[in-house]
Amino acid sequence: MLVVLVIGIAALLVLMSSRASGPANVHAATNPVAPRAKRRPQPHTEYGIKLAPTAEQVRANPKHLRSGLLFDVRTGAVLWEREPGRVLPIASLTKMMTALVTVAHSDPDDRVLITREATRFTGSGVGLLPRGKHVSERALLYGLLLPSGNDAAVALAQHVAGTQNNFIGKMNDEARAMGLRCTHFTTVSGVVDKGNHSCASDLALLARAVLANRLLARIVGSRSAIVPFPIKGGKLYLYNNNPLLVTRYPGTNGVKTGYTSASGPCLVATARRGRTWLGVVLLNSFNTTGQAEQLLNAGFARVRG
Q1: pLDDT of amino acid 240
Q2: Quick one: angle between helices 95-105 and 200-212, nearest 10?
Q3: Longest CA pairwise span in the chain (Å)
Q4: What is this structure's pTM?
Q5: Is 189 a catalytic residue?
Q6: Which one is catalytic: 67, 92, 124, 263?
Q7: Which pLDDT belongs to residue 278?
Q8: Catalytic residue check, 92
Q9: 20 pLDDT higher than 50
Q10: Closest residue by Cα to residue 85 from 33, 45, 34, 26
Q11: What residue segments make up the domains of the chain, in order of their start?
């Protein structure tokens, strides 16, 4: 059944496209990747919805959002979009695919050798990986997705494929298998922008695939985690960078943040209330927290209304 969604938030959000309701189709036993949902063709991408920036945001960055998407996590139906096919650098949103390839080709209970290469990372990292020792893959997945560890990405890639280049090949193979039309990877972590890109539509599909995997869904929905680790005390405390989890936005259960100077602030976030499960993709957003909450609030208000 299709339910017409009309969103109104104080003259800022006034109309949404149709939303299909029905059971989720994202839990295939052998392949957790959900198929691309069909949508009615739309004459334009704005649907009358405007994300109004503050005066300070306009002065600091006139392009306060380069690309965005609001979607139904269960069905894949698009509720709102702004240039969803625009190809842009995605920074650490890359790690959604890193996680998917890792769990598809290894066991979370594996022991992963920490190499010299993994400890010589740049950018964000777990920072405490003990060179020459073995760490559980499950712990590294938490380190990959919560604090966005580039070192964890390297360690996992080497464990799964031997080299980062081999792992990147698997990432691009999976992107093609999923039908991701504007996605290409040149890095396991997202720290390299050149040639590493995607678009909002593809990232929504990636998010649905992550949430279809029970382990990954549990990880990305965690505000924090304590994992066993071969360091003094035997435990590692990790905290999620997702701003909606930090601010305790009701129902938040994923997924990933990203930032480089080229990509700008990026966010893929999802929240669930009852049977309503919505997600938002923001690429090069000046205010990921505010814009995500604005879109999600609008969606929940209308779907429940």
Answers
A1: 97
A2: 40
A3: 59
A4: 0.81
A5: no
A6: 92
A7: 97
A8: yes
A9: no
A10: 45
A11: 2-251+258-264+288-304
Catalytic residue selected from 17, 67, 124, 148? 148
Q: What is the dihedral of CA 301, 3, 85, 49, to 10 degrees?
A: -40
Is pLDDT of 58 > 60?
no
Mean pLDDT, all residues of the chain: 83
Residue 275, CA atoms < 13 Å, CB-side half-sphere: 8
Q: Per the residue annotation, which of 17, 67, 95, 170 is the catalytic one?
A: 95
Q: Which CATH class is domain 2-251+258-264+288-304?
A: alpha beta
Q: Is the separation of the CB atoms in 106 and 137 below 8 Å?
A: yes
DSSP 266: E
User: How large a percentage of the chain has pLDDT more than 90?
Assistant: 73
3 state DSSP class of 85: coil
What gap in Å lies between CA 128 and CA 140, rounded to an integer?
11
Of all residues in the chain, what percent are helix, strand and coil, respectively (each to 5)? 35, 20, 45
Q: Which segments of 66-131 does DSSP mark as H helices, in order?
A: 95-105, 116-119
pLDDT single digits (tens) 254-291: 999 999 999 999 999 999 999 999 999 999 998 999 99
Catalytic (active site) residue 148? yes
d(C-alpha 171, C-alpha 178), whole Å: 11
Confidence of residue 51 (pLDDT cuts 50, 70, 90): low
Q: Pairing between strand 19-20 and 134-136?
A: unpaired
Q: In terms of DSSP bridges, do strands 224-228 and 111-113 run parallel, antiparallel, or are they unpaired?
A: unpaired
C-beta of residue 240 within 8 angstroms of C-beta of residue 224: yes
